[in-house]
Design brief:
Beta-Lactamase, single chain, 44% helix, 12 helices, five-stranded antiparallel sheet, globular, Heat Shock Protein 90, 3 domains, binds adenosine-5'-diphosphate
């Protein structure tokens, strides 16, 4: 969900006369009472017929989750038909699906991904649609599966990476075993053993990283001092700071409502990256927090190699790495994004003034 959408306030649509006709005055009230509070989008579309054929649909009822979720202004039902609001639906499987429900009364279930204007609103995400006939129209229940589809895609990517990264050590082990079998009296060469140690460490890191990622959506929320969390991270990173001759400047940080372990992971990844992706100069990392309108905005800024704008979104995906010369798994920022989003926040990166990167993330106010 985009940030602009979070600020959109749902206003109920006007009375739906057709709903009253289908359900009766009291039935329509009951229907609204039942579905207004439903946590997922529910909408009713009424068939528009031409010579008996369904050619389009008019908007009937839309519950607040629908209206709010897609930022649909209250005047939409008067201004648009379904095909006017979403022209690319014309001739689509989804449109035929609705028509079929209307004509045959058979419920229809499908999955659709949107990233498109919808009348004056905007639809974004992957949704399971369940549609059933209601009067001469359809009632549609949407279930947001965006996060789980993303997770599944990332798991597939994980399987690919793990298969790829583990095939080299497996080949190495197979070779070593062969050598040992051929020369039972000779000890294995130290460099082969060292290689095996390095690759098994790398395998462990990959597995730990993915487990971290898998658990990063589970939160135990409490009031947490971001200052204490950052101090602990600074203590952990002291060797890297000393080795790089770097400085870490920490501003006044607030109390936030968060899971302390997960928040520490976010700070550890961001500050750790700021030291890792350093430029020519000794790294200088600054952590500050600003009070936004509805939330805290935390910034971790560095003077390192920076990130091009075109890669700014990509790096938060699982296994995404731009700088191959530096060791890494490409999991850290994916974990950060998942943790921050699980807290109801957002994370993004911008070029920092004077070079380097500024990572920002938001967290809700405490209390
Ligand atoms: P890793 O650090 O293990 O490679 P991350 O998910 O933490 O994985 O980061 C993904 C990629 O984003 C890095 O490989 C690097 O290319 C880029 N990146 C992350 N942080 C920074 C930074 N502070 N400055 C420049 N590039 C960065």
């Amino acid at each position: 969900m985009s940030d602009a959408r979070a600020e959109f306030v749902a206003e109920p649509w006007g009375e739906d006369r057709q709903l009253v006709e289908v359900l009766g005055e009291r039935g329509a009230d009951g229907f609204r009472a039942l579905l207004d509070g439903f946590p997922e989008p529910v909408g009713v579309l009424w068939a528009i017929r031409d010579s008996g054929e369904v050619v389009d649909f008019a908007f009937g009822y839309g519950n607040p989750a629908m209206v709010n979720g897609f930022r649909i202004p209250p005047e939409t039902p008067n201004r648009y038909t379904l095909l006017e609001a979403l022209p690319r639906m014309r001739g689509s499987r989804a449109f035929d699906g609705y028509v079929d429900v209307c004509e045959r009364g058979e419920p229809w279930v499908s999955e659709v991904t949107y990233d498109t204007p919808f009348g004056d609103g905007y639809m974004l995400g992957t949704f399971l649609h369940r549609a059933a006939r209601l009067g001469d129209g359809v009632i549609v229940f949407l279930h947001d599966v965006t996060a789980s589809r993303r997770m599944e895609a990332e798991l597939v990517a994980y399987a690919d990476v793990v298969a790829h990264d583990l095939s080299a050590p497996l080949a190495g082990i197979a070779l070593l075993v062969k050598v040992l079998e051929l020369r039972p009296d000779e000890p294995p060469a130290p460099d082969v053993l060292q290689e095996l140690r390095a690759t098994s460490d790398r395998a462990r890191e990959l597995v730990d990283g993915v487990l971290d990622y898998a658990r990063s959506g589970e939160l135990v929320l409490e009031s947490v001092s971001l200052q204490d969390v950052t101090d602990a991270v600074a203590a952990d990173l002291r060797p890297q700071l000393a080795e790089s001759g770097g400085t870490l400047v920490v501003g006044d940080l607030p109390e936030v409502r968060a899971d302390p372990r997960q928040l520490r992971r976010v700070m550890q990844n961001l500050v750790g990256n700021a030291l890792k992706f350093r430029g020519e100069d000794p790294p200088r990392v600054e952590v500050v927090a600003e009070r936004g309108r509805d939330e805290w905005v935390v910034t971790v800024q560095d003077n390192g190699i920076g990130i091009d704008r075109e890669n700014a979104r990509r790096i938060f995906a699982m296994f995404s790495r731009l700088e191959r010369r530096v060791e890494g798994s490409g999991i850290g920022l994916a974990v950060c994004r998942r943790v921050v989003e699980a807290h109801g926040g957002r994370i993004w990166v911008e070029p920092a003034e004077g070079g380097g990167s500024a990572f920002h993330f938001t967290l809700p106010f405490d209390g």
